[in-house]
Write a structure and sequence with these properties.
Two copies of one chain form a homodimer. Chain A is an all-alpha fold. Helices cover 72% and strands 0% of the residues of chain A. Chain A is elongated and about 60 Å long. Chains A and B meet through helix 8 and helix 10 of A and helix 8 and helix 10 of B.
Chain lengths: 209, 209
């Protein structure tokens, strides 16, 4: 029997390798065999850290969720109107996800339906946070007065749920980031009014801060 | 053997009865037995005009499509900018469909999937017409310059397809007409600019002309 080495350093190397692979080639190309070869460690060592391939993916997704949560938390602390916090929070999600928005990652929903479902649940939680900010923006007089907030509360998650599906976002002839920006532009320029509406396109396209 | 009477008048009475029933009680409550009793004609007579219940529904749906086509045709002839023709065409669809937007009709998709599919195909054709008007509106400088028309051409039918599903439109605590108006308000106020954008809410709520 060989020596069992379970270390944070190897764990981190595995996760970093996975992140690079997911960004470059997506999920379907990822195998533990290939990872062992590329990282020059044994499959046994990999399985000592992560019992299954799913465990690697789940751990990685948890770290992405954590980044998004941290971003939301940081934005909430800014001394800005709710509308701006909302826009910057959404932009943060786009920025965090953009490196992974390739055709390869589009297989997540079909290859790993349980992991996909956990992301859907996470997204619902974020919608709730977004909607609280929208309510505040309404109090601040920044929401299109023709809209009814109760209907909006029901429709907006439906729209976003339906649109942020691999089948929609991963289009052969449009970049996914551009598609997601277009959805936000339509929706939020339809929802906001005045200067918030006018500043939205520029804020969305700004380089990550 | 009784006398066979196939007449336009009876055919029309059957269709009018069906329309009233669909408006008041929806589709699941509709039976040929009940129709025969209410119209004081035999089931045999009904089946001489329409061999199946599905045939009644299909014929009725064809008449609704015909009304929508006629409305689109009439709007196209108006001497108005493309944006206005588009808005008035969409409003016409809402006005034609509003009497049927009740919980009962929401069963169409599950009870009569083939008829539903034919409506989905019809809707796609209307989207194409709407999109031609949008392209013209863009030429006229009435479209939000931050939007990319190619992406919009792809996204807009996706959004409308996903939203105009019974599961979304027939909500227990919101009127369906209000829900559909809200969707149009968000989307088209996000898409249009200037005076078109400003006049949109009022146009949508105007009484049918």
């Amino acid at each position: 029997m060989g020596t069992t080495i379970v270390s944070d350093e190897i764990r981190q190397r595995i996760l970093t390798y996975f992140e690079n692979q997911a960004q470059r080639h997506g999920l379907s190309a990822f195998t533990v065999d290939r990872m062992a070869k590329d990282l020059k460690i044994s499959k046994r060592t990999i399985y000592q850290h992560f019992p299954t391939k799913d465990a690697i993916i789940t751990t990685f997704m948890d770290s992405v969720k954590h980044r998004i949560d941290e971003h939301f938390g940081a934005m909430e602390k800014l001394d800005l109107p709710a509308s701006m916090i909302m826009i910057k929070s959404l932009k943060g999600i786009l920025d965090i996800l953009t490196p992974f928005l390739n055709q390869g990652i589009s297989d997540l929903k079909t290859l790993y339906p349980e992991i996909w479902q956990s992301l859907v649940a996470f997204r619902k939680g974020k919608f709730d946070q977004i909607f609280k900010l929208l309510r505040q923006a309404q109090t601040d007089g920044e929401i299109n007065p023709n809209l009814n907030m109760n209907r909006l509360a029901y429709l907006l998650p439906q729209i976003l749920d339906e649109l942020f599906q691999p089948e929609v976002v991963f289009h052969p002839s449009h970049a996914s980031r551009d598609m997601m920006e277009e959805v936000f532009l339509i929706l939020f320029q339809g929802i906001f009014t005045g200067s918030t509406r006018d500043s939205f396109p520029q804020l969305l396209k700004q380089q990550a801060e």
